[in-house]
UniProtKB/TrEMBL annotation:
Residues 19-96 form the Carboxymuconolactone decarboxylase-like domain. PANTHER family: 4-CARBOXYMUCONOLACTONE DECARBOXYLASE FAMILY PROTEIN (AFU_ORTHOLOGUE AFUA_6G11590), BLL7811 PROTEIN. This is Carboxymuconolactone decarboxylase family protein. It comes from the Bacteria.
Length: 157
């Protein structure tokens, strides 16, 4: 499969991607736990059907020590016993933040309050920005049919 656009050769995309990557770096440096970031990124990408982001975040999480069991259960996290309550709260917020068209009210007060039990304001900010950036990345990749499977952990660092 060939991508419709090459984001790394187009001058406009190059400028945007540079800022996008800088935002991603700021998130990596935030106080939101790295494991939570990868699980949320993976779940948002699963919901949006973004194969390239699923590829990236599965491999990055594994390289950071995440277990295959947990990665394989992200799509069914509600029934899985391998996630902490904090991770479950983050995954729930990520789902509601991604499915805004399905739930006209966006993220419910109950889901927000549940996440706020485990994350401080800085971490919640990072979580909200992460969900938003992942949704943007997913849409860019899905619209342009970016191929998946060849990513190597650490490739974009």
């Amino acid at each position: 499969m060939d991508a419709r656009l090459n984001f790394f050769t187009d001058p406009t995309a190059g400028k945007v991607i540079k800022h996008f990557m800088a935002a991603g770096k700021a998130l990596k440096d935030s106080q939101l736990p790295a494991a939570t970031q990868e699980l949320v990124s993976l779940r948002v990408s699963q919901i949006n059907g973004c194969a390239v982001c699923i590829d990236i975040h599965t491999k990055e999480a594994a390289a950071a020590g995440e277990t295959a069991l947990r990665l394989n259960l992200v799509a069914g996290w509600r029934e899985a016993t391998v996630f902490t309550e904090a991770e479950r709260a983050a995954l729930e917020l990520a789902e509601e933040g991604t499915r805004v068209a399905d739930a006209a009210g966006g993220v419910s007060d109950a889901v927000w309050a549940h996440a706020a039990k485990y994350y401080d304001e800085e971490q919640l900010t990072a979580l909200v920005v992460l969900v938003s950036l992942m949704n943007m990345a997913n849409r860019l990749n899905v619209i342009t049919r970016q191929p998946a499977g060849d990513y190597k952990a650490g490739q974009f660092h």
